[in-house]
Design a protein that fits this description.
This protein is of the alpha+beta class. The protein has one domain: Jelly Rolls. The chain has 5 helices and 10 strands, in the order E-E-H-H-E-E-E-E-E-E-H-E-E-H-H. It has a 5-stranded mixed beta sheet, with no helix packed on it.
Length: 153
Amino acid sequence: MRKVHTDQRYFLGNPIFFSELVSEIPEGFAEELKRSARDIFLAGGASLFRRGDPAENIYILRSGSARLVIDTGSGTGISRKTFKGESFGFPEAVLLGTHENAVEADSDCVFTAIGSNDFRRVLHLDPGLCFKLLSLLGENLNTGRQLLISLHT
């Protein structure tokens, strides 16, 4: 069993709320994302994805309670509660890589999944969305770097 920090000072960057991320995209692009979306039910205690799983979707928490967990590589994880409307899978799904973290359901949850290829297509068509996502990811990368430095000092 891995040890997981749950203290608020181990906050893992700012949540990326999907509705805020796509709030300024043209209506046609929003409709394209809605058409590709599907809901996924996840029972409490299950994992939506784990570190190393293929990143094939972007996920949005619609209901329930879940936890974002990052493995620090030292046998210790860092976690925080997630928020309704928060999205997961960036940047891995955009880069078609594997997940570097995990999302675990604390209670029964419903997530909306959007295929990474569908999201990437909209990113290519809307430079404003692309720059907005890059800015948010850059802020979180800096926060995460500072967190890891503080854990190892």
